[in-house]
Amino acid sequence: MNKRLSKSEFKAAIESNIKTLYRKTIDEATVDQVFQAVSYAVKDIIIDEWIATHDEYEKQDVKVLYYMSMEFLIGRTLGNNIINIGAIKEVREALSELGFDLNAVEDKEPDPALGNGGLGRLAACFLDSLATLGYPAYGCGIRYRYGMFKQKIEKGYQVEVPDEWLKNPYPFEMKRPEYAYEVKFGGNVRVEKKDGKDVFIHENYNSVRAVPYDLPILGYKNNVVNSLRIWDAEAITNFSLEHFDRGEYQMAVEQENLARTIVEVLYPNDNHYAGKELRLKQQYFFISASIQRAIARYKEKHNDIKKLHEKVVFQMNDTHPTVAVPELMRILLDEEGLNWDDAWAVTTKTCAYTNHTIMSEALEKWPIDLFSRLLPRIYQIVEEINRRFVESIKKAYPGNEEKVADMAILYNNQVRMAYMAIVGSFSVNGVARLHTEILKKQELKDFYLMMPEKFNNKTNGITQRRFLLHANELLADWVSKKIGSDWICNLSAISKLKDYLDDEKAAMEFMDIKHRNKVRLAAYIKEHNNIEVDPDSIFDIQVKRLHEYKRQLLNILHVMYLYNKLKDDDGFDMYPRTFIFGAKAAAGYRRAKLTIKLINSVADVINNDSSINGKIKVVFIEDYKVSNAEIIFAAADVSEQISTASKEASGTGNMKFMLNGAITLGTMDGANVEIVEEVGKDNAFIFGLSSDEVIKYEKDGGYDPLEIFNKDSEIRKVLMQLTNGYFSAENPGMFKEIYDSLLYPDEGGRADIYFILKDFNSYAQAHERIDKAYQNKKAWARMALLQTASCGKFSSDRTIEEYVRDIWHLKKVEVKMPK
Ligand code: 26W
């Protein structure tokens, strides 16, 4: 096996691990135990490269990126690690000779789900690209005891089950107690004069010890191993039994509780701010620990803290890590003794901020009383940042009090985190061109006008190594056979496939692979849902978090409409279609959960109606997650990207589908715009309002869904079925809430705020175009192949190179290993 282990050595390592870990022979071992044994064998190989990488970083004294994120949705790592050390063939054979199947062994790994959706998965793709490109970087996050919940569907309803990913020891993590730091909460700040200077003393606080665990992040066959550092909390128990009477027992118990609760669970909200105190604790906990560590590391080699930004950059993944700004200020002021101006200059050259959403309900605004009680010293610093910023607004716009109200960090008894992130950063970026333009022209217009130089776009990307090389082996091999394997580390090379667009044999092979992947997904669906689906039908797939703006509701209403047509209209026919959904709803998001129930209720009726000859099947895949996503993307014909225009900042699922040859059915939203630009508008199915139209309706009104309801009998029929028990005979009123939301104004005075009825007909027409297009097999194959051939731009390698060029300014490092 590559340079260091032969197949037989690898076999020996697995057998020896089984022996030392479980006191068993390989013949007695379970697949779970083999998973552990293989993982430790792989880890053994990784360790040397891990050490070598960090030695090289030390030696070259490189600038380091700290990617700060509450979420890293890394998914299973064994398979990717084996690919990245270049040993997939050897390991597969070694295991097979020992009587085990690599895929089955991989299946035993828990999916580390330390993230919700887009933002967390993006962070994971970025780490993959950073390591592959050889850039020095740490991911900084939280070691949640429970990650994203597992979803069970019971009687059509979502049920949340805790995700115990640490039930068995996770073989790839390494505890690093030598880098533990104390993090303080609550208490009060006393000011003392010392040598004529104010000294701020934090007292009566509660504290925990933050202890890091490192996960190796492997570059592709380049010996680079970066670290994802996730922080665990432990109690600081340095009390002795004699002191119980002094109230220290109580203190110790409190600290135990604090430590346990801080890292207990990932908040399962995506795009929805809930304002929970524990969440703010989590934020400060991992940020304070990460920054303390970054500064200590810097000081090992450097004595001028004013040059921190030359060796360190902090990228804040959305506003969740924004306390980094005042925390860095605190350390520079209180611990390093800088004056305000110097500390501020360092901070604003070190911090950068990425915005991932314009949904107003996602914006973090912490109540001042909560914030100042939990983080008293940090709050003082925020006040001073705000005071100085308000002064600068007044200077820029004399006499304009409205600007102050619109832009101040502290306003209305709230800390507006996005504004603090912008003010404290040297770079502010959106995640797709349209999104960045909306930030500049609408949401953050005032900030853009005042500091245009900070704003820039970085269109998201995905790693082709997970989402093609690992997820779709058949296609990956085929692509490499046709054009060589350059695409693995340079996705733009995949455009060479365009030479095969009019090669019928190649197009047939491409579609044959798609078919085999559809058979694989069909088997997964049979096993998990007990539904038979036909791999010859069109696989039309929408997988992503469940959110009203993503409009799974539009999709299922359209399925109902098609079903009605099949039943009512003798002249109507359609190509068989399998509509596949996968989505988790936040546990407290009632309407999203009701939409899941609706999808399952519609599926029940349609799948059991033999009168439609199986023309439509509807499948809701339980527990959509990174590991089954890989199977799903590979099998898709149609990629549903149907958010209300302007609402989806970028989307990254759209890119994963494209990479695997699925054709986009979408609105002109997020990165869809750039996908269409790459494939050409004739090779995508685009529908619906533009973002400008949506924004105009939102501002000026003028849209009344009742007009559509009254005019259009087919839409009306579908909506009536939400209230007449057609799909919920046991409880006819069950979906009334959804019906009402589409027709009657909400508290904000608007109905159908995501323009579902407005876009319905245009969506239905796009589906008709798909139905027609699919029947021309040759043309469809060409179009599908063109998707894969055109996705070069959407590699996260490209995205990372742009971040490096414009924001981070890192240097590539080469790691050589002895042969
Ligand atoms: C405070 C609650 C909360 C939790 C998560 C607010 C906001 C979030 C995330 C920023 C939501 C999110 O994941 N946004 C997604 O980010 C992706 C990566 O940039 C984009 O592709 C998606 O369009 C965007 O919805």
From TrEMBL:
Organism superkingdom: Bacteria
Catalytic activity, as annotated: [(1->4)-alpha-D-glucosyl](n) + phosphate = [(1->4)-alpha-D-glucosyl](n-1) + alpha-D-glucose 1-phosphate
EC number: 2.4.1.1
Requisite cofactors: pyridoxal 5'-phosphate
Residues bearing PTM N6-(pyridoxal phosphate)lysine: 656
Keyword hit for rRNA processing: no
Cross-referenced InterPro entries: Glycg_phsphrylas, Glyco_trans_35, Pyridoxal_P_attach_site
Pfam families named in the record: Phosphorylase (PF00343)
Entry coiled-coil feature ranges: none
Gene3D superfamilies with a match to the protein in the record: Glycogen Phosphorylase B
Main enzyme class: transferase
Signal peptide, first to last residue: none
GO cellular component terms, A-Z: cytoplasm
Sorted UniProt keywords: Carbohydrate metabolism, Glycosyltransferase, Pyridoxal phosphate, Transferase
Function of the protein: Allosteric enzyme that catalyzes the rate-limiting step in glycogen catabolism, the phosphorolytic cleavage of glycogen to produce glucose-1-phosphate, and plays a central role in maintaining cellular and organismal glucose homeostasis. Phosphorylase is an important allosteric enzyme in carbohydrate metabolism. Enzymes from different sources differ in their regulatory mechanisms and in their natural substrates. However, all known phosphorylases share catalytic and structural properties.
Protein name as it appears in the record: Alpha-1,4 glucan phosphorylase
Organism: Johnsonella ignava ATCC 51276
Lineage, top ranks: Bacteria, Bacillati, Bacillota, Clostridia, Lachnospirales
